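Worked example

This section walks through a single chain of length 131. The input is the sequence exactly as stored; nothing has been trimmed or padded.
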Amino acid sequence: MTTKINNIIEELKSLTLLEAAELVKQIEETFDVDASVTSNQGIAMISSVANNDSNNDLEEKTEFDVILEEIDASKKIPVLKVVRSLTSLGLKEAKELVESLPKPIKTSTSKEDAEEIKVKLEEAGGKVIIK
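Given that input, the structure is written out below as tokens.
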């Protein structure tokens, strides 16, 4: 490393937590970047320049929760069978889940999987929402 970089690193080591947070905030504003934590690698600087619309800070959601809201009482057994096939629950646990609605059936799943699960549960007689 160059001496310039070494000096910057040494200066960063002397910062308090509040000063470091303020530094990150200033870097984000000055360079129009987003400092996000990714896995266990630390902080990654991701340019937000690609997003031309600065007012549109919404990112496309990639993980969804499938929530069984309610079921038709006459369709309880078919819904119970679908819940068991979608989860690793036993008969007793699946029955308890179906009887204590609304409950999440699957969490942090892809949009495609969430849509498939919704279709299966609705065909069996359940009312499902995806969040």
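What to look for: Residues 38-57 have pLDDT under 50 and may be disordered.
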